[in-house]
Design goal:
Layout lengths: L3 E4 L5 E5 L1 H6 L3 E10 L5 E6 L10 E2 L2 E4 L6 H13 L7 E10 L6 E11 L11 E7 L1 H10 L6 H13 L1
Parallel strand pairs: 3-8
Antiparallel strand pairs: 1-2, 3-6, 4-5, 4-9, 7-8
């Protein structure tokens, strides 16, 4: 597994190392996130596989992942979109950057997040190791679902959707 990027409170790179080190030592690290919308305005969401090491069985954004050593946010977004849902060559636009702290796991995850948004009407091809399902959903239906059953979703996705809606 590749080393991820560790940053300071200004999002300046201070080093690299394994994800476990970032979590164990509460180091700030970088996450690239992707929202893909179809021509109906629906958002593609994915369900993390039950065998996923982190937050199995929870619904998440179209794709997301750590920014690896030597990568920038945009390259990480493109890589994760291809790895997780088999989608490539989609123009992505940077939408919003925000800092978050999450407690989905026993320790706090401190992250700078950059969300990229794109439009796509094709099929996805999931990586069964990371993803068990995908679906298109309207933002209104998604908000209702998140309000009714917040435990179905990752905290990171919820925070990302909130940040996106503030600027939309």
């Amino acid at each position: 597994m590749a080393n991820i990027t560790f940053v300071d409170s200004n999002d300046t790179v201070i080093g690299y190392g394994p994800r476990a080190e970032a979590i164990k030592n509460a180091l700030i690290h970088r996450i690239a996130r992707v929202f893909l919308f179809n021509s109906k305005g629906e958002l593609l969401i994915q369900k993390r596989s039950d065998s996923h090491a982190s937050l199995p069985g929870r619904w998440d954004q179209s794709a997301a992942g750590h920014v690896d050593e030597g990568e920038d946010y945009a390259h990480a977004a493109e890589r994760e979109l291809h790895e997780e849902v088999g989608i490539g060559n989609v123009p992505l636009q940077k939408s919003v950057k925000f800092y978050s702290e999450e407690t989905d796991e026993p320790k706090v995850k401190k992250r700078f997040n950059v969300l990229f948004v794109g439009n796509y009407d094709g099929a996805s091809k999931i990586d069964n190791y990371e993803v068990s399902n995908t679906r298109w959903i309207s933002l209104d239906d998604l908000k209702r679902w998140m309000n009714d059953k917040p435990e179905d979703f990752t905290q990171g996705f919820v925070k990302c959707l909130e940040a996106y809606q503030k600027i939309s």
